[in-house]
Amino acid sequence: MSQDNKALFIIFGGTGDLAKRKLYPSLFRLFRKGNINKHFAVIGTARREWSDDYFREIVAESIETLHPTKQEINDFTSHFYYQSHNVNDTEEYQVLGTLANRLDEEYQLDGNRLFYLAMAPRFFGTISKHIKSEQIMTETGFSRLIIEKPFGTDYQTAEQLNHEIGAAFKEEQIFRIDHYLGKEMVQNISAVRFGNNIFESLWNHKYIESVQITLAESLGVEERGGYYDQSGALKDMVQNHILQVVSLLAMEPPTIFSEEAIRTEKINALKSVRIYDEQAVKESVVRGQYGQGSLGDHSFSSYRDEPGVEENSQTETFVAAKFMIDNFRWAGVPFYVRTGKRLTEKGTRINIVFKSTPINVFREENDTNTNLPENILTIYIQPTEGFSLTLNGKEIGDGFNIDPVKLDYRHSQENLDNSPEAYEKLILDCLKGDATNFTHWDEVATSWKIVDIIRHTWDKETEQIPNYPAGSMGPKCAFDLLEKEGHKWVWEPDTWYKNKGQLKD
Ligand code: NAD
């Protein structure tokens, strides 16, 4: 039975892209399922002068793809109110506060408030300050703050931002969104590890050769060139999503699956990630930027030709790194990560590469090759979701040839269609006060410390870029990074296209 959670949502940036593409559809899904029903109201605020009616039309448009009935549209959008508001103007907060109190009474919301900052981070401090000083937080119910990435641009700015927000909200009231943590298969990492003895008992340096994490995007920067050019892949993807996935893979088992126990272990894992010096950065982290390229019949322009991007931009659109985790469990096991734009295929996947058997007993007598293919556990996060495990079996027929087979499980399309979207899950978690799948300040701080030294090292040097053609799986240095240690990337979608002559070598 779903529960009708009571809350007033105040969405700052209510006319923005994120609100329309993600937040309103997610609220509608929660409404359909009865997680919010009679006792909720939404105030959208932004600078534009919109009426409630116009706002409701926009909200209705944003949920069109979910095929609501007319009745559903009316019922849902009747809970939406619009308040034009410049976040720098103190008096306008008082108007907002009055509207909030009126809706609280009308919908019997018990003073529960969820403030969603779907705006540029430079506004986070001033909004938080005003929410407190103009008494828009309530004494009776909960007041929670959801904020979007990026949380700062380095450790120092993140600390400053945290300080500003912290003056109004306590840590347990702050919900820092990392939408990767809302993804079904990212949450499944814990199920695979802690629900299966066959994996957890092998989950350490004795049996694992390497861990590989790929977050590949096939798209370029689209309309976000201006923003992206200031950020780059390291800050946009590695500091948050990738290090979060690393912490889930590397953490010790929590004593119980609770928010506090999981958080403690994740933070411990992140604190064990080796912080490099400049020399180690040069050896262990590489970057790239895409140039023109083609894949099959499609040709793509270079990053520097994208709208909003500087013509001599040095911004990286690709990062590959080796992280080392200096603790008992992981000593010596490389965690290879890579992420980039305009890669061959869109895909997020994790490959756990197990060590080969100590010797190949099936080898020919004088054969010096003693290696059998490694067992690999793959966790597919998107676009397909599931697991696979490669095992070595005997090839059918005469002789005794070893043939790797793949046990492959993917969630069906029907299951995927019915599963909640990441934002939907995270908003519901926040309504329930469960911050397990949000990022704690200690995690943000530790991640910035890992990433800052990489940025500082790169800022001192210019890279020969562009260095990979759009449509490939990144620059040569990203392959060399593994090869020099006798490893290779397990996932090679580019090879398939190369073999068909659709991608240049
Ligand atoms: P957007 O530019 O589309 O929207 C920004 C909103 O802020 C608009 O509603 C605008 O009216 C409002 N605004 C700007 N200045 C204001 C002021 N002085 N007073 C009141 N309102 C003002 O941005 P977006 O893409 O929706 O992104 C919002 C946040 O979410 C950003 O922090 C972004 O990094 C983050 N984010 C966005 C996405 C996405 O898919 N769009 C994904 C992840 C994170």
From TrEMBL:
Pathway: Carbohydrate degradation; pentose phosphate pathway; D-ribulose 5-phosphate from D-glucose 6-phosphate (oxidative stage): step 1/3
Claim: Oxidoreductase is one of the keywords in the record: yes
Catalytic-site annotation from UniProt: 241 (proton acceptor)
Binding site for NADP(+): 13-20, 47, 149
Protein's UniProt keywords contain Cell wall biogenesis/degradation: no
Positions that bind substrate: 179, 183, 217, 236, 341, 346
EC top class, as a word: oxidoreductase
Keywords, in A-Z order: Carbohydrate metabolism, Glucose metabolism, NADP, Oxidoreductase
Superkingdom assignment: Bacteria
Gene Ontology CC, one term: cytosol
GO process terms (BP): glucose metabolic process; pentose-phosphate shunt, oxidative branch
EC number: 1.1.1.49
Domain Glucose-6-phosphate dehydrogenase NAD-binding: 10-188
Catalytic activity: D-glucose 6-phosphate + NADP(+) = 6-phospho-D-glucono-1,5-lactone + NADPH + H(+)
Function: Catalyzes the oxidation of glucose 6-phosphate to 6-phosphogluconolactone.
PANTHER family per UniProt: GLUCOSE-6-PHOSPHATE 1-DEHYDROGENASE, GLUCOSE-6-PHOSPHATE 1-DEHYDROGENASE G6PD
Family as reported in the entry's similarity comment: Belongs to the glucose-6-phosphate dehydrogenase family.
Protein name in UniProt: Glucose-6-phosphate 1-dehydrogenase
Organism of this sequence: Vagococcus fluvialis bH819
